[in-house]
Design a protein that fits this description.
Two copies of one chain form a homodimer. Chain A is elongated and about 85 Å long. Chain A folds into three domains: 10-61, lambda repressor-like DNA-binding domains (434 Repressor (Amino-terminal Domain)); 65-166 and 299-325, Rossmann fold; 168-295, Rossmann fold. A six-stranded parallel β-sheet of chain A has the order 2-1-3-4-5-11, sandwiched between helices. A four-stranded parallel β-sheet of chain A has the order 7-6-8-9. Chain A has helices spanning 10-17, 21-29, 36-49, 55-62, 78-93, 107-118, 139-146, 168-181, 197-212, 227-238, 252-264, 298-313, and strands spanning 67-72, 97-102, 124-127, 149-152, 163-166, 186-191, 216-222, 246-249, 274-276, 293-295, 322-325, 328-330. Chain A is α/β, with parallel strands linked by helices and 348 residues long. In chain A, β1, α5 (78-93) and β2 (97-102) form a beta-alpha-beta unit. In chain A, α1 (10-17) crosses α2 (21-29), α5 runs parallel beside α12 (298-313) and α10 packs across α11. The first copy, chain A, has twelve helices and twelve strands. Chains A and B meet through α4, α5, β2, α6 and α7 of A and α4, α5, β2, α6 and α7 of B. Chain A binds a DNA duplex (16 and 16 nucleotides) through residues 9-11, 19-26, 28-29, 33-35, 38, 53-54, 56-63.
DNA sequence: TTGTACGCGTTATCAG
DNA sequence: CTGATAACGCGTACAA
């Protein structure tokens, strides 16, 4: 007498619709090959039973799950929000769903997540944390390399994995040029964490651009992308024997933290010190002063990344090794020409 | 001659380790019940083959997947970042993984995601978008109600679903009291989208608190939680015939937008107008002026929510109908006593 | 166009 | 403590 508990199965739908199990299965994969009448009966039966395909079973059978795994270092970083929206939208259009792994930059954890790909639980993987799971040379790594994987935003050390993102080095150079064009000659940098690929590229580019324009890169303070680390870095910079007239923070959060610390220390921005950020997150536009920054096409990056994995999943050979998207200068109020503000205490 | 392609299976591990398939299975679920020697051989074999359990198969068999589904309206909203971190951490500790569904507040989409729960693809669900999937009274809804589901941050219309979050009405009242204590009597409000439960609660609470202290709530401008909508709302408020001396924005982003628009319009904050936000996102602390706001314990909320679903999943009857966490006033520079700034142009 | 039969990789049950 | 065997729900040759 006890009724069934779980959701309906195909067999139940089949019985109710008066067709064979197979037919129901086909109704969900190859609807075109069924007679309209049969299809309708199945649709009705499914609706009445509120039937949903069991994804575990389908996935076991098809060796594919309709899931995309996204590995990122910190879901709390607002930079990722729009990127994820782009990925989400693209995945949805492709009928796939997102599994998000926040690795906290922990390799063991990342490997654990990646095991899902290896186990066939997910169809493809987007790496936003700059690291390829599994030790180089291991069988698991080898298998990973044959799977649909793309690196987003940050390069990974394996060149055979397609990359989607901007040219970070060029962007770093551009910041130096921008500052040089404003007349600045003494530059400072707030870098991201040392081991990070983005940190390196932006810093190298910045140094290169400075050199090209005959500017002095007075020094580099190291942060960890967070607002707080930007504040600390700014305090550090203020203690340097030779103070720069402009600083470039490798992301907006550190730039915002720096601006805040500078204001607290009574240093006017951009009057005494110009500040440039990176990413153009939403809050960059509404700070005071609003932040000059480099805009990354975050949403488009997300879309491009899904497109790339999807292509590989479906066997389309769009195997471009890299998809470099354009970045963009966004000039706002946190930068000004050299000496603009040194004269007076401020301009009201 | 063609080698196998996919990852190793239990059978292969079993063969290599010289044990039965069943034994390998047990090694991964009940390791305690195996002899150390057997366990070791299986461990070795697994390592050599880089074996990973196939989660689809396990999930099919166990009718549970080790996944938690999180439904949220907008992954781009920084409020969710820390909440998600809390959920993530809790899920991980429980050996579970996160499936994140960004519904964009779209009911159809939410239902599609929720179907996964129904199909047993996910073990539990955390609703952060204030809506229970599936029409009231439908079989699917009925099944959902028996599944481990909790509402986080925003109440849902079904009282039988446990809630985790703060008392938003009380928080709204508190803001009014806070402002009244500073001497303000003419208040304005920037509300969230009309259909939203959070909007209603905070607005009602604010109105209530204002009434209690004999303040006039001059009007309410409606936003959509975004920075831009806060800017627009502020512009609107400036056009009111009677201008308030303090406004409460229902979240920090709108508050930040408002402060920005106010500054652009030459209105000093808090000199001429005090502004209070809600949530205490990271950026609230580093704006200029830094934002007075109500802090929600975002991380703890996430943790509490996983704890609640996990309890239900594991059959522990911690079936509290609600888990109300404390909010906290955070006084910063965007509020000041009435009239503090009306006298002079500013205080250097 | 529709139905039959088998297997995907695991876990649970029951013996040994 | 260990092993054989039967499902779990679905997709896909193959046959009709």
């Amino acid at each position: 007498m006890r009724g069934k508990v779980g959701p309906a199965t195909m067999r139940e739908v089949a019985e109710r619709a008066g067709v064979a199990l197979t037919t129901v299965s086909r109704a969900f994969s190859n609807p075109d090959k069924l007679s309209p009448d049969t299809l309708r009966r199945i649709a009705d039966a499914s609706a009445e039973l509120q039937y949903t395909v069991n994804l575990s079973a389908r996935s076991l059978r098809k060796r594919s799950s309709g899931m995309l795994l996204v590995l990122l270092p910190d879901i709390g970083n607002p930079f990722f929000s729009l990127v994820l929206k782009g990925i989400e939208e693209g995945a949805r259009e492709g009928g796939r769903v997102l599994l998000i792994g926040d690795t906290g930059s922990d390799a063991t954890l990342a490997d654990a997540y990646a095991g899902q790909l290896d186990a066939g639980t997910v169809d493809g993987m987007i790496l936003i944390d700059g690291r390829v799971p599994f030790p180089h040379g291991s069988p698991a790594r080898a298998r990973l390399m044959r799977a649909p994987v793309v690196a987003l935003s940050e390069h990974v050390d394996d060149p055979s994995i397609p990359f989607v993102g901007i040219d970070n080095r060029a962007a770093g150079r551009d910041v130096a040029h921008l500052l040089a064009d404003l007349g600045h000659r003494r530059l400072g940098h707030i870098a991201g964490p040392a081991a990070n690929g983005l940190t390196t590229l932006r810093e190298q580019g910045f140094a290169e651009g400075a050199r090209e324009r005959g500017c002095d890169l007075l020094g580099t303070a190291t942060g960890d992308w967070s607002i707080g680390s930007g504040q600390a870095a700014a305090a550090d910079i203020l203690s340097w024997p030779h103070r720069p007239t402009a600083i470039f923070a490798a992301n907006d959060e550190m730039a915002i933290g720096a601006v805040h610390a500078l204001a607290a220390a009574g240093v006017s921005v951009p009057g005494e010190l110009s500040v440039v950020g990176f990413d153009d997150i939403d809050f960059a536009a509404v700070g005071s002063p609003a932040l000059t920054t480099i805009r990354q096409p975050r949403f488009a990056m997300g879309r491009a990344a899904v497109e790339a994995v999807t292509a590989r999943i479906e066997g389309r050979t769009t195997a471009e090794p890299a998809r470099i998207l354009p970045f963009e200068r966004v000039m706002r109020a946190s930068t000004g020409p050299l000496g603009s503000g040194q004269t007076a205490a401020g301009r009201g």
